[in-house]
Amino acid sequence: MTLKTTGKVLAVLSLSTLTACMSTSSGPYLKSSMSEGVGPLEVRAPYANYVNYYGYVDASVKPEGKYKGKDTYYLYAWVPAAVDEIGISMQSPVESKPTEKDFVHNNFAPGMEKDKAKFFDTYIVFDRMNIIDSSKIAQGGKVLQPLGYNDDTRELPANPSGSYYNSLLRQTTNLSNPTESLVRGVYRISFTSFRSQVEGSFEATIGTNIPGVKIAASLEELHKLVNTGNL
Ligand SMILES: [Ca+2]
């Protein structure tokens, strides 16, 4: 009887330890291509660092380009050192409130999160630009290589209509191919939608294993963030 009870207590203890471990390893939806844990507990490992950008697109935000004929908007990221991998996700509408360390567009206001009426089906494209000198960000540049794109992922929550239309991609460096190596420099995230108009709140997240990545909606803003520390 005593032994049985002890057994039960142990089972409950190990279950709660397991639950604790699993909740610790959740965190951001965007995970790296590396895995942690063993066997059935194996899960994708998080990145060491995350940066978030909160924005809201309405008629006052003009598209900056076209991607396959669709109006497209840009975000720019400064990556201050070579990285092994970059993960990018975008979801709409925004789920949570921005914190102090997040980058927030002027159009984004508290209360826009979880808006069931205004959101869009995200599609992201990730390009490397030819800007590697941080002092020359404001001078502009051009896209050097397209690195990847994604339309839909099941790794992010479904949108309010229940569809898994949010986007996530992971790009790993290839040191033997200079065009695919993730060097220090400026990268561009283009976003558009192929199933709807781009209207509503969005949250873009970049995960890397280095600190100091910054995101802005223009190269001028990125220049200020990187070179003066504020906008
Ligand atoms: Ca999508």
TrEMBL record:
Signal peptide: 1-20
Positions of the Surface lipoprotein of Spirochaetales order domain: 43-215
Keyword Signal attached: yes
Keyword terms of this UniProt record: Signal
Full protein name: Surface lipoprotein of Spirochaetales order domain-containing protein
